[in-house]
Amino acid sequence: MVSIAYNQADQDYRREIGENQSYLKHILTSPAHYKAAKSRRFPVTVNMEIGSAIHCRVLEGEDEFNSRFLLKPEGISYTTKEGKEWKAQNKGKTILAKQDYDNVLGMSESLFELDWFNPNQTDYRKYNELSIYWEVDGIPCKGRLDRLVDLGDRLLVLDLKSTDSIDFHSFLKKVVGGMNYVFQAAWYAEAASLAYNKPADFIFIGIERTAPYAKSIFQVSSDMMLEGTAQIKTARRLLKKCLDTKSWPGPEVSYNIMELPSWYRSSVDQSTVIDADLF
Questions:
Q1: Which parts of the chain register pLDDT below 50?
Q2: Hey, is 255 helix, strand or coil?
Q3: Sign of torsion, CA 79 80 82 88?
Q4: What is the pLDDT of residues 35-63, one digit of tens each?
Q5: Contact indicator for 123, 150 with CB cutoff of 8 Å
């Protein structure tokens, strides 16, 4: 059973039952890490606010952006009576400093240069922030895709990533490293394929947070998608076992002997040697 929710508010999506990729991938470290991730509340950073703002303006439109995000007036201080009143009047909205606000506008205009993000095309909003719900092996799943493009015989799943740099190697480290975006790519492609009964490719759109707001396109290869799919199967198998046994073990304690890495030895060899005769 697969269902699609068009134009669903983010808070409504978050209330729906289902495993999402951002939590489930932690079970690959250990079931205990998964449980901890689900109960943890991460502090909202400025970069997270900028990311939310760029998604809103590009994918949901100017009106929605203006209803949720505000430019902090120049010179206003939250320690003054006037500042406290202004902040109280705008409770619930995200307030951005001028530089951050200007960067969001600049990033938006840069992305609008891509045909994929032309807001004047038919049904543009309908296929943005698309919520999909499905079930595999008795496990309810959900995903919220940034944008879906139907090419006829195939689908494109597009995902916006604001970043400090669009350098290929730096971005690749995020995809296969600590953020494990490979898992995300395979998860969202699976959702789209099941919902529309077509194969789906996955593309990251990297956009730099500061001027000149350079952007780059990173398509996830078929090999990387296979790796992500394998990780998802493992994660679901672990989750099902933990649910059945009601046990959420952590990783086994390991004993490790550390050696100096090759890069350290090289740096020492190249360092300046102090002449003992100088003392």
A1: 276, 278-279
A2: coil
A3: positive
A4: 999 998 888 899 999 999 999 999 999 99
A5: no
